[in-house]
Design brief:
Shape: elongated
Distance between the termini: 88 Å
Structural class: alpha/beta
Radius of gyration: 28 Å
Protein backbone atom coordinates (compact mmCIF):
# COMPACT_ATOMS: atom_id res chain seq x y z
CA UNK A 1 0.00 0.00 0.00
CA UNK A 2 1.66 3.24 -1.18
CA UNK A 3 2.04 6.23 1.10
CA UNK A 4 2.20 9.85 -0.07
CA UNK A 5 3.38 12.38 2.53
CA UNK A 6 2.38 9.81 5.14
CA UNK A 7 -1.14 9.28 3.78
CA UNK A 8 -2.56 6.25 2.03
CA UNK A 9 -3.58 6.52 -1.63
CA UNK A 10 -7.27 6.29 -0.81
CA UNK A 11 -6.91 9.10 1.74
CA UNK A 12 -5.31 11.67 -0.57
CA UNK A 13 -8.55 13.14 -2.02
CA UNK A 14 -9.93 13.85 1.46
CA UNK A 15 -6.65 15.36 2.64
CA UNK A 16 -6.49 17.68 -0.36
CA UNK A 17 -10.09 18.80 0.15
CA UNK A 18 -9.10 19.92 3.65
CA UNK A 19 -5.88 21.52 2.39
CA UNK A 20 -7.83 23.56 -0.14
CA UNK A 21 -9.52 25.38 2.75
CA UNK A 22 -6.23 26.75 4.09
CA UNK A 23 -6.90 30.25 2.68
CA UNK A 24 -10.25 30.33 4.49
CA UNK A 25 -9.66 28.55 7.80
CA UNK A 26 -5.89 28.82 8.06
CA UNK A 27 -3.27 26.20 8.80
CA UNK A 28 -4.66 25.55 12.29
CA UNK A 29 -8.14 25.01 10.86
CA UNK A 30 -6.85 22.47 8.34
CA UNK A 31 -4.88 20.73 11.09
CA UNK A 32 -7.97 20.46 13.28
CA UNK A 33 -10.10 19.15 10.41
CA UNK A 34 -7.53 16.45 9.61
CA UNK A 35 -7.43 15.47 13.29
CA UNK A 36 -11.21 15.15 13.35
CA UNK A 37 -10.93 12.92 10.28
CA UNK A 38 -8.72 10.56 12.26
CA UNK A 39 -5.23 11.27 10.94
CA UNK A 40 -2.11 10.95 13.08
CA UNK A 41 -0.83 14.17 14.67
CA UNK A 42 2.77 13.63 13.56
CA UNK A 43 1.75 12.94 9.97
CA UNK A 44 -0.43 16.05 9.94
CA UNK A 45 2.27 18.29 11.43
CA UNK A 46 5.01 16.98 9.13
CA UNK A 47 2.75 17.46 6.11
CA UNK A 48 1.63 21.01 6.93
CA UNK A 49 5.08 22.09 8.14
CA UNK A 50 6.49 21.14 4.74
CA UNK A 51 4.64 24.11 3.22
CA UNK A 52 6.60 26.49 5.44
CA UNK A 53 9.89 25.21 4.03
CA UNK A 54 11.48 25.35 0.61
CA UNK A 55 9.49 22.69 -1.19
CA UNK A 56 11.56 20.54 -3.49
CA UNK A 57 10.08 20.58 -6.98
CA UNK A 58 11.25 18.35 -9.82
CA UNK A 59 13.23 20.30 -12.42
CA UNK A 60 10.82 19.30 -15.21
CA UNK A 61 7.83 20.51 -13.20
CA UNK A 62 9.59 23.76 -12.30
CA UNK A 63 10.46 24.38 -15.96
CA UNK A 64 6.82 23.81 -16.89
CA UNK A 65 5.60 26.29 -14.27
CA UNK A 66 8.12 28.92 -15.38
CA UNK A 67 7.14 28.42 -19.00
CA UNK A 68 3.45 28.97 -18.19
CA UNK A 69 4.27 32.14 -16.25
CA UNK A 70 6.53 33.45 -19.02
CA UNK A 71 3.86 32.79 -21.66
CA UNK A 72 1.19 34.61 -19.65
CA UNK A 73 3.45 37.62 -19.15
CA UNK A 74 4.52 37.46 -22.79
CA UNK A 75 1.01 38.05 -24.14
CA UNK A 76 0.68 41.22 -22.10
CA UNK A 77 -1.79 40.21 -19.39
CA UNK A 78 -1.47 42.68 -16.53
CA UNK A 79 -1.85 40.23 -13.67
CA UNK A 80 0.24 39.10 -10.74
CA UNK A 81 1.08 35.39 -10.84
CA UNK A 82 1.86 33.37 -7.74
CA UNK A 83 2.63 29.66 -7.43
CA UNK A 84 0.60 28.21 -4.55
CA UNK A 85 1.43 24.58 -3.62
CA UNK A 86 -1.69 24.42 -1.40
CA UNK A 87 -4.11 25.20 -4.23
CA UNK A 88 -6.49 22.32 -4.88
CA UNK A 89 -9.40 22.22 -7.33
CA UNK A 90 -12.29 20.04 -6.22
CA UNK A 91 -12.69 18.16 -9.50
CA UNK A 92 -10.62 14.99 -9.84
CA UNK A 93 -10.54 15.07 -13.65
CA UNK A 94 -7.66 17.56 -13.82
CA UNK A 95 -4.52 16.10 -15.33
CA UNK A 96 -2.09 19.01 -15.13
CA UNK A 97 -1.81 22.65 -14.16
CA UNK A 98 -4.70 24.14 -12.18
CA UNK A 99 -5.32 27.81 -11.45
CA UNK A 100 -7.65 30.27 -9.76
CA UNK A 101 -8.13 33.99 -10.38
CA UNK A 102 -8.62 36.48 -7.57
CA UNK A 103 -9.27 40.22 -7.46
CA UNK A 104 -7.01 42.15 -5.09
CA UNK A 105 -8.79 43.25 -1.96
CA UNK A 106 -11.52 40.61 -2.10
CA UNK A 107 -11.58 37.14 -0.58
CA UNK A 108 -12.14 34.09 -2.74
CA UNK A 109 -11.65 33.45 -6.42
CA UNK A 110 -13.76 34.78 -9.31
CA UNK A 111 -12.65 32.12 -11.80
CA UNK A 112 -10.79 28.85 -11.82
CA UNK A 113 -9.91 25.89 -13.96
CA UNK A 114 -7.08 23.81 -15.32
CA UNK A 115 -5.97 21.12 -17.74
CA UNK A 116 -8.03 17.97 -18.25
CA UNK A 117 -6.64 16.02 -21.19
CA UNK A 118 -8.58 12.79 -20.66
CA UNK A 119 -12.11 13.94 -19.91
CA UNK A 120 -13.31 14.63 -23.47
CA UNK A 121 -11.74 11.39 -24.63
CA UNK A 122 -14.00 9.45 -22.25
CA UNK A 123 -17.05 10.62 -24.22
CA UNK A 124 -15.68 10.94 -27.75
CA UNK A 125 -13.07 8.14 -27.80
CA UNK A 126 -10.75 10.68 -29.43
CA UNK A 127 -7.56 11.85 -27.69
CA UNK A 128 -8.28 15.54 -27.05
CA UNK A 129 -6.11 18.04 -25.21
CA UNK A 130 -8.19 20.45 -23.18
CA UNK A 131 -7.85 23.35 -20.79
CA UNK A 132 -10.82 25.31 -19.52
CA UNK A 133 -12.22 27.36 -16.69
CA UNK A 134 -15.45 28.64 -15.22
CA UNK A 135 -16.34 32.16 -14.12
CA UNK A 136 -18.20 33.05 -10.94
CA UNK A 137 -20.58 35.64 -12.36
CA UNK A 138 -22.47 36.08 -9.09
CA UNK A 139 -19.25 36.83 -7.22
CA UNK A 140 -18.11 39.28 -9.91
CA UNK A 141 -21.45 41.09 -9.78
CA UNK A 142 -21.25 41.23 -5.97
CA UNK A 143 -17.77 42.80 -6.20
CA UNK A 144 -18.95 45.34 -8.79
CA UNK A 145 -21.83 46.27 -6.49
CA UNK A 146 -19.43 46.66 -3.56
CA UNK A 147 -17.33 49.18 -5.48
CA UNK A 148 -20.42 50.93 -6.95
CA UNK A 149 -19.23 50.20 -10.48
CA UNK A 150 -21.24 51.76 -13.29
CA UNK A 151 -21.10 50.09 -16.69
CA UNK A 152 -19.89 52.70 -19.21
CA UNK A 153 -22.53 53.25 -21.86
CA UNK A 154 -22.56 56.31 -24.09
CA UNK A 155 -24.66 54.76 -26.85
CA UNK A 156 -27.92 56.39 -27.89
CA UNK A 157 -30.91 54.40 -26.62
CA UNK A 158 -34.12 54.51 -28.64
CA UNK A 159 -37.44 52.93 -27.73
CA UNK A 160 -40.08 52.30 -30.36
CA UNK A 161 -43.48 51.86 -28.74
CA UNK A 162 -46.00 50.14 -30.99
CA UNK A 163 -49.69 50.35 -30.24
CA UNK A 164 -51.52 47.06 -29.99
CA UNK A 165 -53.51 46.35 -33.13
CA UNK A 166 -51.18 47.79 -35.76
CA UNK A 167 -50.98 45.87 -39.03
CA UNK A 168 -48.16 43.43 -39.76
CA UNK A 169 -46.90 45.89 -42.36
CA UNK A 170 -46.47 48.63 -39.77
CA UNK A 171 -44.88 46.19 -37.33
CA UNK A 172 -42.38 45.09 -39.96
CA UNK A 173 -41.52 48.73 -40.64
CA UNK A 174 -40.86 49.22 -36.92
CA UNK A 175 -38.48 46.26 -36.84
CA UNK A 176 -36.80 47.47 -40.03
CA UNK A 177 -36.25 50.90 -38.50
CA UNK A 178 -34.84 49.30 -35.37
CA UNK A 179 -32.34 47.29 -37.43
CA UNK A 180 -31.19 50.41 -39.26
CA UNK A 181 -30.65 52.27 -35.99
CA UNK A 182 -28.71 49.32 -34.55
CA UNK A 183 -26.42 49.46 -37.56
CA UNK A 184 -25.61 52.99 -36.39
CA UNK A 185 -24.57 51.50 -33.04
CA UNK A 186 -27.71 52.58 -31.21
CA UNK A 187 -29.43 50.47 -28.57
CA UNK A 188 -33.02 49.94 -29.72
CA UNK A 189 -36.04 48.45 -27.99
CA UNK A 190 -39.25 47.62 -29.84
CA UNK A 191 -42.14 47.06 -27.46
CA UNK A 192 -45.93 47.16 -27.37
CA UNK A 193 -47.72 49.99 -25.60
CA UNK A 194 -48.79 49.14 -22.07
CA UNK A 195 -52.07 50.17 -20.47
CA UNK A 196 -50.39 52.90 -18.43
CA UNK A 197 -48.47 54.49 -21.31
CA UNK A 198 -47.31 57.47 -19.24
CA UNK A 199 -45.71 55.26 -16.59
CA UNK A 200 -44.19 53.07 -19.31
CA UNK A 201 -42.44 56.06 -20.85
CA UNK A 202 -41.23 57.27 -17.46
CA UNK A 203 -39.67 53.86 -16.81
CA UNK A 204 -37.99 53.86 -20.22
CA UNK A 205 -36.55 57.31 -19.58
CA UNK A 206 -35.18 56.13 -16.23
CA UNK A 207 -33.52 53.24 -18.07
CA UNK A 208 -31.74 55.74 -20.32
CA UNK A 209 -33.95 55.72 -23.42
CA UNK A 210 -33.58 59.33 -24.51
CA UNK A 211 -35.44 58.84 -27.80
CA UNK A 212 -38.96 57.46 -27.61
CA UNK A 213 -40.95 57.01 -30.78
CA UNK A 214 -44.60 56.01 -30.73
CA UNK A 215 -46.42 54.20 -33.56
CA UNK A 216 -50.18 54.32 -33.42
CA UNK A 217 -52.75 52.22 -35.27
CA UNK A 218 -52.54 53.04 -38.96
CA UNK A 219 -55.74 54.48 -40.36
Amino acid sequence: MALKAGFKDEEIDGVLISLDKIDKIGKDGVKEELKVNGFDNKVINDYLDSFDKNISIEEKVLDNINQIIDNIKGIGLKIDIEFDPTLVRGMSYYTGTIFEIEIAGFNGSVAGGGRYDQMIEKYSNLPTSACGFSIGFERIIAILNDINYVIPNDKVKTAIIVENGVSNKVLREAFKEAMELRKKDEIVLVTYRKKNAKYQKECLEQEGYSNIKEIFIDK
